[in-house]
Specification:
184 residues; 23% strand; 9 helices; single chain; globular; alpha/beta
């Protein structure tokens, strides 16, 4: 566990030099999200064989498609495509394909949605018991389970704890001590 905390700290602080804008680069996001979910004490119970991550994107928006493609490229370059020893599979999902969304364990939101649209999507994901990953602390305030934002030039983990608990996620106190926790 100490090794995992050290790795998160290394990712947060030493890779933060790559952050030039107000967005966490995808090459930093993926290892962080993998480490974050390794602190879910219920992960092996929820996903015993494979963790299916759906990348929700809007094919009509170039930025969304670009983010999806970059996420896949970075994921494919990883040597270790596991979380806590469980293999991870990626599935690109066009926004609105509810049948495909229902088949994933975690939804990564590569979308630019209004607050209303995001709230509607999160309600669907919650009904299907699917945790969400997104960017920006504001998304966590709206109900995204785990998001990444930039604070003082460094990645900041933002966790919506009530949303996580409703979905059966049990993050360790060690992770929560490193994150900004939203308690609705």
């Amino acid at each position: 566990m100490k090794k995992s905390i050290f790795i998160i700290i290394v990712i947060l602080f030493f890779l933060s030099s790559k952050i030039l804008a107000d967005e966490v680069p995808i090459e930093v996001q993926i290892p962080l999200y993998f480490k974050i979910f390794s602190f879910d004490r219920n992960l092996k119970q929820r996903c015993p064989d494979t963790i299916k991550i759906g990348i929700l994107y809007d094919p009509k928006k170039n930025e969304s498609v670009k983010n999806k493609d970059e996420f896949i490229k970075v994921f494919n370059s990883l040597k270790d495509k596991t979380i806590s020893g469980i293999p991870v599979q990626l599935t690109p999902i066009s926004y609105g394909d509810s049948e495909l969304i229902k088949q994933v364990d975690i939804a990564y939101l590569s979308l630019s949605l209004s607050n209303k649209e995001l709230t509607e999507l999160l309600n669907l994901l919650n009904n299907w018991n699917i945790p969400s990953l997104g960017l920006g602390g504001k998304s966590a305030e709206l109900g995204v389970v785990v998001s990444l934002s930039v604070f003082e030039g460094k990645p900041q983990i933002v966790i919506n704890l009530p949303a996580a608990k409703r979905l059966g996620i049990d993050f360790s106190s060690r992770l929560l001590s490193l994150a900004k926790v939203i308690n609705e």
